Amino acid sequence: MHKRQFLTQLGLAGMLPAGAALAHAPDTPQPTLLTVSGAIERANRGPLNPVTDLLAAKQGVQFNQARTFDARALQRLRSVSISPTVEYDGRRHTLEGPLITEVLASEGLAPGRKATLVLRAVDGYNATLTAADAARYGMIVALRMDGVPLSVGGLGPQWAVYDADNIPEFKSRPVNERFTLSPWGLYLIEVK
């Protein structure tokens, strides 16, 4: 065998394990981006762990069960678009993601069931509203703005938001006062 052919075959053979590992990558666990806790029916994890749930623990959150969503799970939910004027630049942007009611339904919260939601952000901000109000506002868990995924350090990875331009109780307010119920950097929804 020629030395060049041997080295080529050796190099290709060395790539096989890496290729096999890449082929299995979709099955590997992905990081949790959103947790829904509290009065839910379809949990996929147990109680708050003060080490792995450090941010929630520092914010005083406690739960016995929760449902977690990674990027794939959120993207599998039906997506809708809204186009509110955003307070950060005063321009309309297209935001896309599942309705918050779809997220809640996927973990067992029946439409119309009375519940209070606490929407928690990574910076410690939280907003409280009823599930009925979230439905009435058409609130979404935005994953993309103008077709680009929301990023950590920006408004993401998720933003609980509604189209304030089309909701009477918000559209008459100045733009910087319309989104008090819309935490960006959303990581946890508590259902009470």
Description:
There is one protein chain. It is built from six helices and eleven strands. It has a five-stranded mixed sheet. The radius of gyration is 21 Å and the shape is globular. It is α+β, with helices and mostly antiparallel strands.
Beta fraction of the residues? 15-25%
* Sheet with the most strands: spatial strand order: 2-1-11-5-6
List how many beta strands DSSP finds: 11
Distance between the termini: 71 Å
Q: What is the alpha-carbon Rg in Å?
A: 21 Å
Low-confidence stretches: 3-24
Would you tell me the overall average pLDDT? 88
Shape: globular
Structural class: alpha+beta
Helix content: 25-40%
Main beta-sheet strand count, sense and barrel state: 5 strands, mixed
What is the N-to-C succession of helices and strands? HEHEHEEHEEHEEEEHE
Number of helices: 6
